[in-house]
Design brief:
By secondary structure, the protein is an all-beta fold. About 0% of the residues lie in helices and about 55% in strands. The strands form eight sheets. It has a 19-stranded mixed β-sheet, with no helix packed on it.
Amino acid sequence: MKKYSLFIVSLISVATIALATETIWIHQNDRITLGIPTTMADNITLSDDGTTVNINMKDNAGSYSKVYSDIKNIVFGEKQSSVSIVFDGNDADIINPYAFQGVTIDKTGGNITITSTCSENVRYEVSGTATDGSVTFVSDSSFTLVLNNANITNSTGSAINIQSAVTATIELTDGTSSTVTDGTDGENGSLYTNGSLIFKGNGTLNLIGNTKHGIAAQKSIEVQSGSINVTSSASDGIHSGATFIMNGGYITTRQTGGDGIDGDEGTVEINNGTIDIEVATNDTKGIKADDIITINGGDIKINMPADQGKAFKTKSYMTINGGVITATASGNVVVTDNDPSYCTVIKTDGDFFMTGGTVNITSTGEAGKGFSIDGNAKFTGGNINITVSGGGAAYTNTNGKADSYAATCIKVDGNLELLGGTFNLLSTGIGGKCISTDSDAIVGDETSGPTITAKTTGAKFVEVQGTNEENTDYANPKVFKADNNMTINNGNLILSSTQDGGEGLESKNIMTINGGYININTVDDCINAANSIVVNGGKLRCISSGNDAVDSNGTLKIHGGIFIASGAKTPEGGFDCDNSANFTITGGIIVGIGGSNTKPSTSTTTQGVILYSGNLAQNAVLTLTDTNGNHILSFTNPRAVNTGGGPGNGGTSILLSSPELKTGNSYKIYTGGTATPGGTFEDLVYNGSYSAGTLKKTVSLSSIVTSVQGGGR
């Protein structure tokens, strides 16, 4: 009994010892150490038979009772603010300073279960290596889990399993690297919670999700800092049931069977940090949410080798206000049950908005899409750089009709507003398109507009083969197409298409141009509208090498602006309107050149027009003055259309109109000479002064529209 007496003597004066120390530490043989604040302990005793240690707490706060042989030692020491778990193979050393404040820890080998009723935000520090272990939390309150070179592998389920609907802060100790791996019999993922997660610290967390996700939360996930690497997962790399927010840090996901980051039914918001995702599984997404996706900042890189993959996908709407998105896509379209599904970088079921930031897209897969917006799209700022090079093909759609698919930089099902921003777009595949909307397109407003540089280089391809060219339908490349109205108010548009069938601006209804700078070079029509083209202002230069510069299948009305239109040889020309009675000029400085120009209506045209037929070589300068030599305009021909005779004989037909032309006055047409500009626009000099060259024709404007034959050069 002597040893027990000494034991009691060494422990009995708890109150006295408490003056110098803060905690009674009970080191058990099961490698679990329990801490009791000395202020809580009342007395420590042995049982009458000396086999059991009893510690009674003050204020009926409970007691501790343990067989003496299960206790390694009891010491008095300083307070420890964190629970410590140090894994060692299939076991662990645990220090629990909250053992009598509501935190109970049980373990079976390396599998540790923590049950907490403590109202404090308890801090748990985990380190070491568990070859077959796990940490499970059942907690009434939010807590902090510190990972400090912790490597946890569980053969049966989640490596870290938080079963409570609380917020757990995962702190990654600076300069450390931790790895968690789940087993193939699990249900949720390597790191799972029924609540929310917050990541911070400047360490690294590596995750392997053999069963499902790398990280899964039923509620929200917020990343403030730290590096999170999902090296592989059977399903999503990171899965959040409510909201995913990134304010900093670094995330990579690789070899995911599902999506990279999935906001599930909630939202995704990225404000800062770096994201690097690879979408390698067909029909999966880089960043996905059923609700809103918002990008305010950060650096996001997504690589998509998967067919029909999506870099961003939302069932709601998406907004980009800042940050840099760089996406590389090589996946192809997949047609299932006559319905194509595309490899697309930004895909929304709802609307899309962009106010700032940068989007860089390179897509090489068949019929790849940069943007595919099912709702409306509105761009007011930012930089968009897209290259799509995949080809297109014909197929039979779900209605049993011949259809086609092709690569497109920006595709919008609803209305498209391009009010600001810088666009650099290139589509090189057959039938490829730069911008296409199924509804209305609006470019710019009264005060500002976008800068759009867009080009297609792909050829057209057959959609429906007819018995001849006339009844064969083609899928044509398009630079900017609207299936309904297109209105251009402002901005700088530099558009080009290098193959037959490629048009610059196309409206299936009404094309209205109120302002802006527009420079178009195409093989097919530069500007085409099904029902009407109305030009109220702006500066336009349209050069078509194989068709009309401007072609309206309905009415063509020019009320202002500066307009250069150069078309191909007869029967093509500068301005083509199906019915001369529907072509009206009431204002503007206008030059139309080509094989022919539709004659404006004499009943509706109010500004003088001269139709001059003759030859004009490439780079030749044609000048119009009044009879006193006052300069009206000079035009440098960008290319020779032909060198034939008059209209109907292959000659070049030139349309000239200016507010300076008045009925009853005479005017002179020169070639050569030197013009000093008052104003300039591309190939045009106007309202300047002129040193005369060779006089070709003196024209008396006897009618509001006067046709004359002239010599050539």
